[in-house]
Amino acid sequence: MGALYLSGGGDSDQTLLIDRGFAGELTGGMSLLYLPMAMDPDDISYDACYEWIKSVFVPLGVQDITMWVDLGGKTLDDLKRYSAVYIGGGNTFSLMHYILQSGFHVHLTAFKEDGGLIYGGSAGAIVMGSNIATCIHMDDNDVQLKTGDGLGFLNDFSIWCHYEEENDPLIHQFIQAYRKPVIALSEETGLKIQSGKMEVLGTKPLHIFDRNLLKRVFEPGRPI
Fold first, then answer.
1. In the prediction, which pLDDT does 2 show?
2. How many beta carbons lie within 10 A of that of residue 65, not counting itself?
3. CA distances from 105 to 60, 71, 96, 153, 164 (A)
4. Per-residue pLDDT at 35 exceeds 90
5. 3 state SS of 168
6. Among 38, 44, 49, 150, which residue is least crowded by beta carbons within 10 Å?
């Protein structure tokens, strides 16, 4: 095990191939922990979030799904009771705020380094990158988060989700401001990282922008 799955967001039809690949790692009744904290419960209740995650993964054979709505006081031992973690979408600043405020970034990093399986969708993918300012064109920083640092699970790469080609000038601005290369994921694009290797998932290509603003395109099923 020990892999990262990222998706650029979208509905369950758009992410089906990515979700199916992730679910395939959870064979033999392995358990999934779902973290919906990027979502504002005043907009969509956590109960509705839980029904959604079940609607996605139960048909793919994942039956044991637990949801946490509070990271306070959680430990690495608590986290290691689960085979995999799914971090859902919503507001990236709010999600990073919750992760940092609770100290959960320490436990999640240790879980990953110990071979844990992690999936990030949209905001959940962005926080795994080196800098979360890739979300400023779509997310408000209502929590007044002071840092742009992400979890840094992909070395120096930052993650851009819901990518469309018209985003290229914004991506160029981000790179010029922060000097970070960018992995751009559309709503039908995913990425699997395991044992130092990256593979494109989904139905649309992945785009990588280097610090010199050069854009390279990688088709699904192709290693990077």
1. 81
2. 18
3. 28, 10, 9, 11, 30
4. yes
5. helix
6. 44
